Amino acid sequence: MFISLRKRKLKRFFENSDVRLFFKTSPIDNPSRPGKIIKDLLLEVEISVTAMSGHLGVTRQALNNLINNENASISPEMAIRLEVVVGLSADCWLRMQANYDVFKVRLYENEIKQNLKPIFAL
User: Fold this and answer.
1) For the chain, which residues make up each domain, given as ranges?
2) 3 phi and psi, to 5 degrees?
3) Considering the entire predicted model, what is its pTM?
4) φ, ψ for residue 28 (rounded to 5)?
5) Cα–Cα distance, 63 to 35 (Å, whole number)
6) Which residues 6+ apart lie within 8 Å of 104 measured at CB?
7) Which of 26, 35, 41, 51 has the smallest number of CB atoms closer than 10 Å to its CB?
8) Superfamily of domain covering 2-113
9) What angle do CA 17, 73, 76 make, to 5 degrees?
10) At what angle do helices 49-56 and 76-86 cross, to 10 degrees?
């Protein structure tokens, strides 16, 4: 019964969270950091960081850094672990990370472009 309750909460979480926004092809205006999505997921399904780190086969500190450190990114290896444990594809986790990274860089893209000139015209 506890497992089915957790599955229902997990389904409800994915239906109502920012995760569904990443399935759209258009750019997202302020995407959530994937670590925050994991943190929200843990709260929703009432599982501790320690328990989740055990399921993922990583240290508690590694998972804690991912969910609490603004600069931590989901690696391809972690994406595979999340795919198996959470059920959301590794590709989706990595797209969420890429979207978040690009969003952060776009905040100062004019500074990046300032001294650049295109050499290819497509």
Assistant:
1) 2-113
2) -65, -45
3) 0.76
4) -100, 135
5) 9
6) none
7) 26
8) lambda repressor-like DNA-binding domains (1.10.260.40)
9) 95
10) 100
